[in-house]
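This week, work through this protein record:
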Amino acid sequence: MSEQTHSSVAKGLHVIGVPRDHVRVVPCDDAFRMDAAALERAVAADEAAGLRPFVAAATAGTTNTGSVDPLREVARVCRAHGLWMHVDGAFGASVLLTRHRGMLDGVELADSLSWDAHKWLFQTYSCGMVLVRDRGNLVSTYAAHPEYLRDLEEGGVTNPWDLGPEVTRPARGLKLWFTLQTMGSEGLAAAVEHGFDLARWAQDEAERTRDVEVVSPAQMAMVSLRFAPAGLSPEGCDALNAEVSRRMCESGYAAVFTTELRGRRCLRICAIHPEATEADMRGVVRGLRAICDEALAL
């Protein structure tokens, strides 16, 4: 996994018993994408040490920056070394519905893909899915045959409890089905594509604003920026951005939280609301600038 992979991937590995020191974190390039060459070196090093790498987790739309790992290159490494290729598309897989689907070129090579409809498909929590290339892998992993379920196995139908860890589960997909029936796939795609515009408008306003560095440009619905006034130390800028975030959230106008990129505190804007406007996004950046001025004046 890369240094930008969502923490849930490592947590899932820990849950199934993979020791923490067996989870390899691969560096990213300047665009915060997994470095495929570094991945191959890490796999080769573990193999040389007598270990058996078994899965590489790529990301389609990272939480911090919306970056997409080089999926074809990751797939090449996985095929060469016999690894399972998982793609975490919890957020970004929704782009597959849109005219921007080319961003995820190579995702079709994955062995499994996670996709959360409760993120960029606008569903209430929880509504997620895992797609796999070969359904037989799910059956061989999860199928159980207790005597009290034997009557339900007749007829040759694969039951949902044989495809995942839950024996009983709610109809999580029903709300997504209703949304698709109401909006249609084109309407849902347009709502996702709107997020691209929102992020670009925020970046454009940031680039017009003094003392602002765009740390990660608009990708999908993400843009990360940082206030860095001249004469203020890097540590002082970290504290300033944390204070700007705190005050903005307390104001109730927008929830702009911080993250850390290249070792420095940044402001992360994730704009996916289909009813947000260009004026809203420009207003957020202007509001951050006003709060920054207030903080510096103290």
In short: Residues 211 and 230 are 7 Å apart (CA to CA).
